[in-house]
Design goal:
Layout (H helix, E strand, L loop, with lengths): L6 E7 L3 H12 L4 E5 L12 E3 H9 L9 E3 L2 E6 L3 E7 L3 E2 L2 E2 L1 E4 L1 H12 L5 E5 L1 E9 L2 E8 L4 E11 L6 H6 L3 E16 L8 E4 L6 E6 L3 E7 L6 H4 L2 H8 L9 E15 L3 E2 L2 E3 L5 E2 L7 H20 L9 H25 L4 H14 L3 H8 L39 E4 L2 E4 H5 L3 E6 L4 H4 L3 H6 L2 E8 L12 E4 L13 E5 L5 E6 L3 H12 L2 H5 L10 H6 L5
Parallel strand pairs: 1-2, 1-13, 2-10, 5-15, 13-20, 24-25, 25-26
Antiparallel strand pairs: 3-9, 4-9, 5-6, 7-8, 11-12, 12-13, 14-17, 14-18, 15-16, 16-17, 18-21, 19-20, 22-23, 22-26, 24-27, 27-28
Length: 557
């Protein structure tokens, strides 16, 4: 048996990209973590291929610097019909929050980068060739039975367990939670080829009822094709080299292509009935499986990682009560289901089953493109569900900002990222905010305004940061927490001078309001988290926030 401690704070089952991202995030938060995986090495062939700006931002927060793995920025996604030409396109060029809106990547390289990074954390242990055999929850933690390749067994005691062990999750099966959804009847052949020619710089979906086929570039001179199987075609038949060469022939000579992988898959659209059961959590494909038509499978898993990791860290460090962990399911499950619904909708466009359906879909999409609002909704990615919560871990005041204080801030939505500077030193604002809770002052330093609430804020793992508008001089230039908003993304575009916002470690907006009310904002956040210091002052400064408030209140934020 691999030399392991019998006790750990968090046991992560599964060390694919989601499990490795979780291990890195927990490592950055200082949580003693054990990650296990039955496999002894990285799967050598590509599987997931697309990431969006949110996923890249999460990987940034997990400690991967830019350039850790190669990507190709995708300027657009085209939907093509053999009958009516271009049905539609998605404009994916440009950046959002400091990262390209859409990239393709090579999964083994990403996994290698995440595994290399996790070695920097001495309190994170990785054990490969170790599989989970059973779990049992106890009042103070989870007992897991594991077995290594030699058959040796051991019991691991963890305070919390995360199942990131893929679509066939053992953790999910042991929990006995429902895995609802549907399986597509169609099977698809995925072909990854290297040095294919001619190359493309975009993603295209060939919406041909004869054989629908997505096609996209990937790093290292690679390209991927996905071909839908016809009724009666078998896996064995489709994976034969001569059949693969036949399918690839429209894109060049197969002799000039090095086929790295061929595999037949049946796509699924499923999500568990709950992401948490007691002290056990599900993440990634163990919690939801998304058809590939929206490129959101791995992205959704990385959102799980960012949402859950900091909450576990805050509970384990005594900065928050365990009740906040209920918000993981509240926040992640609705958004994961919305992304699955989007993928299913796009799948109906991509997979016409007859010439009549293809013509009908084609003329409908072409007609909608003539309507500016409808065209913008699709092409400008407004069709993509925003990662914004209606219920969860944020303070809901149920009122709009006072007149004259209009902001672009929304509680439960993501705080944007942009470039900030201190003199000649620059960085992304997420790095300036740090790894904890952040009280952001727009044009004003928050620290002097906290008063007696400063101790509560420090106990909750909070720090302060001032974002100054370009050229502002009324601030302490020597202070390490004062940054200049070079691009104008924050002040006054996001909020006016004199406003403040509380931002979670996963960059979700917890609360916001006038800087003059900073002590109230901080105490309401501390009440929401359930810190002991905040509980001792409960009800003394404005309405008390609670998990019930965050979970049930709607309306404007």
């Amino acid at each position: 048996m691999t030399q392991l401690d019998d006790k750990t704070e968090v046991l992560v089952v599964g060390f694919g990209p989601v499990g490795a991202a979780i291990a890195n995030l927990l490592g950055r938060y200082g949580v003693r973590t054990l990650a296990i995986d039955a496999a002894t090495r990285i799967f050598p062939q590509p599987r997931a291929i697309a990431l969006d700006n949110e996923a890249l931002r999460i990987l940034q927060s997990a400690g991967l610097p830019e350039g850790s793995f190669e990507t190709i920025a995708i300027p657009e996604v085209r939907y093509l019909s053999p009958y009516v030409g271009q049905l539609a396109r998605l404009q994916t060029g440009g950046c959002l929050d400091g990262h390209p809106k859409l990239v393709t990547f090579y999964q083994p390289e990403l996994e290698a980068s995440l595994r290399a990074r996790v070695r920097d954390y001495p309190h994170v242990t990785v054990a490969l060739g170790v599989e989970l055999t059973d779990i049992a929850e106890q009042p103070d933690g989870v007992v897991a039975r594991v077995r290594d390749e030699a058959g040796a067994e051991r019991t691991i005691h963890a305070q919390y367990l995360i199942g990131a062990d893929g679509a066939k999750s053992i953790v999910r099966k042991k929990l006995g939670v429902g895995f609802e959804g549907r399986t597509y009847v169609e099977d698809w052949l995925i072909v990854d080829a290297k040095l294919a020619s001619p190359s493309i710089d975009h993603i295209e979906f060939l919406c041909d009822p004869k054989r629908p086929a997505p096609h996209m570039p990937a790093p290292g001179g690679r390209q991927r094709w996905e071909f839908m199987l016809h009724p009666g075609e078998s896996r064995e038949e489709m994976e034969r080299p001569e059949k693969v060469r036949e399918l690839l022939s429209p894109w060049g000579s197969p002799d000039d292509m090095e086929v790295e992988r061929t595999a037949v898959y049946r796509f699924h659209a499923r999500t568990v009935e709950r992401f948490q059961k007691g002290r056990v959590f599900l993440a990634g494909d163990a919690a939801h499986i998304t058809p590939p038509f929206a490129g959101q499978g791995l992205v959704a898993g990385l959102r799980d990682a960012a949402n859950l990791s900091w909450k576990l860290a805050w509970v384990l460090r005594g900065r928050a009560e365990p009740a906040i962990l209920q918000s993981y399911d509240q926040e992640r499950r609705p958004h994961a289901k919305a992304m699955i619904d989007l993928a299913r909708f796009l799948g109906r466009i991509i997979m016409p089953t007859s010439r009549v359906q293809a013509l009908g879909t084609g003329f409908l999409m072409r007609t909608l493109r003539l309507i500016p609002a409808a065209r913008s909704y699709f092409e400008d990615l407004k069709i993509k569900p925003q990662n914004q919560f209606d219920r969860g871990l944020f303070v809901e005041r149920g009122r709009r900002p006072s007149r004259g204080h209009r902001t672009q801030l929304t509680r439960g939505a993501l705080f944007p990222q942009a470039w900030v500077q201190q003199g000649k030193k620059g960085c992304w604002s997420d790095d300036a905010l740090g790894e904890g809770l952040a009280l952001v002052g727009f044009g004003i330093d928050p620290e002097p305004h906290l008063g007696d609430a400063a101790a509560d804020w420090r106990a909750a793992g909070g720090t302060c940061i001032q974002l100054c508008h370009r050229g502002q001089r009324l601030h302490r230039r020597s202070a390490a927490h004062v940054w200049e908003d070079i691009s104008g993304a924050f002040v006054p575009f996001l909020a006016p001078v004199g406003w403040s916002a509380v931002v979670r470690p996963d960059r979700t907006i917890l609360h916001h309001g006038p800087m003059t009310e900073a002590p109230r904002l901080v105490r309401e956040v501390c009440d929401l988290l359930g810190t002991a210091e905040a509980q001792s002052r409960s009800g003394t400064n404005g309405p008390q926030a609670s998990m019930a408030d965050a979970a049930t209140t709607g309306g404007s934020r």
